[in-house]
Amino acid sequence: MALAMAAELPFYLLLLPLVAIVPLLYLAVSRGRPGSGRRLPPSPWALPVIGHLHHLAGALPHRAMRDLARRHGPLMLLRFGEAHAAPHHGGRRGPPLLALRRRVAPELLSTHRVHSFRPIREDEIGHLLRSVASEASPARPVNLSERIAAFVADSSVRAIIGSRTPNRDTFLRLLEEGLKVIPGMSLPDIFPSSRLAMRLSRVPGQIERRRGAMLGFINTIIEERKNRDAAATSIEEHDEDLLDVLLRLQKDMDSQYPLTTLNIKTVIIVSSLYNQQELMADQNLHNVSKFFRTSIKHRLNLDMFAAGSETSSTMIQWAMAELMRNPTVMQKAQEEVRRELAGHDKVTEDGLTNLHYLQLVIKETLRLHPAAPLLLPHECRSPCEVLGFDVPQGAMVLVNAWAIGRDPAHWDAPEEFIPERFQEQGGMGGRDFKGTDFEFVPFGAGRRMCPGMSFGLAHVELALAGLLFHFDWQLPEGMAPEEMDMTEAAGITTRRRSDLLVICIPRVPVSMEYVRYG
Ligand code: HEM
Hints:
GO terms for molecular function: heme binding; iron ion binding; monooxygenase activity; oxidoreductase activity; oxidoreductase activity, acting on paired donors, with incorporation or reduction of molecular oxygen. By secondary structure, the protein is mainly alpha-helical. The chain has 20 helices and nine strands.
């Protein structure tokens, strides 16, 4: 029964080995043995084979983890499936890819680079606003979730592979298919060393086919781009998309740490040079079976582009949902946007600088709805002690950012949406999400902190300002704010379970000026 159930489990159950509130440890390599002298963190009772799986049945992992932490303390040890199924990445590791990351990361997602994509964002926000305006009707709700997702995806794809490519739709389709493959948890995920599990499951084949299609697609684009660059005399830096930047860096990089074309393909697909181990795993990936041996971390990081676009889109949708559920906050935010942009006929990024209340709304959304509720799995590289417990090398550590943001020990009225809580300068109010306040870590903290924060927030701010400036918003006839469905769907991100369907009333006409960069 355990296996049958596990085969149907959603992807979030890959996150079984979690830590609640602070970290939770998955001792992937070894558990404390009698006489080992180690003091391991407390665990709930376990079953043979599945370990602690049953404790998470029926609830989303971040919620189940929070409840477990209330009983067992802030640091817990959970075990799931094959304890020895450690993400092992043989071969060369660390320094070369760290060097690569240090060289490439600032170029890809720096503030300067994010700023250079401003024309694309302002063009795409025009598309979003016009498409919403064209559907506005007092009688029929607009599917705002769909519109917002298309805005972020289109804008991100343009930033990565440029607006010039005729293949944008294919790229979007492949990414969408990738997202569908990722959320399924399969037998090989649970028993990566079992050949039978590999044979019985359809998922390895799906992943391999999709990988092949994506690599073939990226190949074509890279070849087209190289041919174009060979013919062109020069490309202005401000015209570069992320692929141009990577190809330029490939020429410039020293031979000690070369940026290979495979690296570039991986960045475009995974959009993450930041995961050195995953990149190594990718290079060493000879077959799907190996893929599954590295599976938990690898698949979490697969399609980080999709995850980056998904996180921003999810956040905008939660912010709009919370504003609809809290009309006083909505009114205050709209008054600010319309006051600050009075006399303008469109929203530009220059106009966002004085939207202080909107910033509080964004912070409060990040607190209640962190897009990656359990951050990404971290691996303990050397034995250490946390809260008096031993954390062995190889343990997988996950942090329940969602529970931390709702911990009554740190937040008053933690379940309520109160942007004003961030208004105070000192104390609780002064908290920020930049990775220094550990009660508020929606982007993580430290070396693995989200490198796409500015890129993501640029979309969130512009979209919210545009939607609040141009339109008034109402719930469909007969629905009270407290009746809104605020349930989260299962997945890597805390995506809304139901689409946001809202009545849109045009207030400030959407200017055709928005298309000036198109
Ligand atoms: C509002 C939007 C976003 C949120 C809330 C968010 C949140 C996060 C979180 C929580 C992590 C894990 C940090 C950890 O485990 O310590 C992460 C990692 C990451 N994010 Fe974001 N993210 C967002 C947007 C983006 C965007 C737009 C991109 C890329 C264009 C991006 C790229 C990445 C990458 C590459 C990592 C992996 C870093 C590593 O493993 O070292 N993110 N993000």
